[in-house]
Amino acid sequence: MRRITIGVLGLQGAVQEHIKQIESLGHDSAIIKHPEQLDHIDGLILPGGESTVIRKLIDRYGFYEPIKQFASKKKPIFGTCAGMVLVANMLHESPDSHLNLIDICVKRNAFGRQKESFEAMLDVKGMKTKYPAIFIRAPYITKAGANVEILTTYENHIVAAKQEHILVSSFHPELTGDNRFLNIFVDMVVKSLTTITN
Ligand code: GLN
Questions:
Q1: Nearest 5°: CA angle at 81, between 139 and 175?
Q2: CATH domain 5-197 topology
């Protein structure tokens, strides 16, 4: 398999843990702090953190249009937790949305106070055994368009999904020793390279 480079948007949030997980799979990683760096990566992770803060920093450092362009080239993007809020087309009971890259409506901090953070064993599409998912003030998907593939649910709420080259999860895959979820993204990146070069 060709070695790929996955970037993690390094403006705020859980960046380092993603970097470690990418490297544990034998791929190259990059912390993305300047828009020009997007030209040198094959896939981009938008990490968890605080979506309102990350959005402000995206604007301040001139990332908005470059990320939109990256996506328009069909290069894969993975939004985890706050990253999922950032890529959604719609936010629940809010007029705001950010990058508008996937046909989902997302509710922020959706599991309520009594469930600020928790771990759940989930059945994920394509995985033979249950996957340990860590949720921290997590959002969930309230609506998904017809072209969105639902990968898993928790208590009847959609918590991971995929549409073409955009992947999202409510949970933090970088915080478990189980790298199968990141592998879903790696497969998308590898596939995008074969379709782009052929
Ligand atoms: N609740 C946060 C937000 O909406 C996301 C939390 C997280 O990324 N762990 O930005």
A1: 125
A2: Rossmann fold (3.40.50)
Helix (H, G, I), strand (E, B) or coil at 32: strand
85 lines ligand 1 (CB under 6 A): yes
| pTM reported for the whole predicted model | 0.96
Rounded Cα–Cα distance for residues 31 and 37 (Å): 9
Is 81 considered catalytic here? yes
Instruction: Encode pLDDT of 23-40 as tens digits.
Output: 999 999 999 999 999 999
Number of H helices, E strands in the chain: 5, 12
Q: Is the CB of 88 under 6 A from ligand 1?
A: no
Domain boundaries, the chain: 5-197
Which DSSP state fits 173?
Answer: G
According to DSSP, residue 190 is labeled H
The tens digit of pLDDT for each residue in 109-144 reads: 999 877 889 999 999 999 999 999 999 999 999 999
